Amino acid sequence: MKICLICLMFIAIAAQADPVRIITVSEPPANFVNLSGEVDGYVTDIVKAMQRKLKDTTQIEVMPELRVLYTADKYRNIVFYSFSRTKEREFNYHWIKHVLSKNWLVYARHDSMITIDNIEQLRTISGIGVVRGDIRSIWLESLGFENLHPVTNHSQNLRRLMADRLPVIATEKLTTHYLAHELGLSMNTLKVVFVLNRSDVYIAMSKSSDRDLINRWQMAAQEISSNGEMEQIANDWIKRIKGSEGIDVSLENGVLVF
Q1: Which of 16, 54, 128, 247 is found 20 to 30 A from 182 (Cα to Cα)?
Q2: Cβ proximity of 170 and 104 under 8 Å
């Protein structure tokens, strides 16, 4: 009897040893901290819908991108979002749910004389603002770019661009619109000078995560897709995005595209 109790104790301790953590970055409107101090956003709403199916009450944490990736690489049972699924990352994580697709853009000030016709011309720019750990930064590094100027978040980059401390920044459309609005800037003060690439963005889990936990999150993702909940979330955010930013976004195969 004592042996059984001891075994049960060890099982309980093991089950509690690696609780799930849910982490993300600040990249509105997919994920951000709103004025009430709550984690908000299109993908955040999808994650919260999955949590309801799982009866999971884990608090979502927001941290810099490099720290998110470090945490997902080092620890098990980490759910993280919104991150691009690339060839280099394919076997590093479990890809739970495709949530959006987006273009990677290079922005300059509207009064800039910079024109970019191909990616090689970007190497001649004196500095490209990027975010540490961001997929655009990693991708450009892999191509041997030596003129990258990394910071912690996209807001810092936009401020540096507008202060004429950087000639261009590498980001994407929706985040730039949201941050410009937050900083009181008109999008007329910016212009797209080059389209870098395109990526699919996912909710993912760390590679060493518990198999049962991975299965349960995957099942929750399938359920909110099949019952129409994810489509409803997407349509609600399309209305919000078009209403507040006037940006043309669409829904393709249940995924937000811009």
Answers
A1: 128
A2: yes
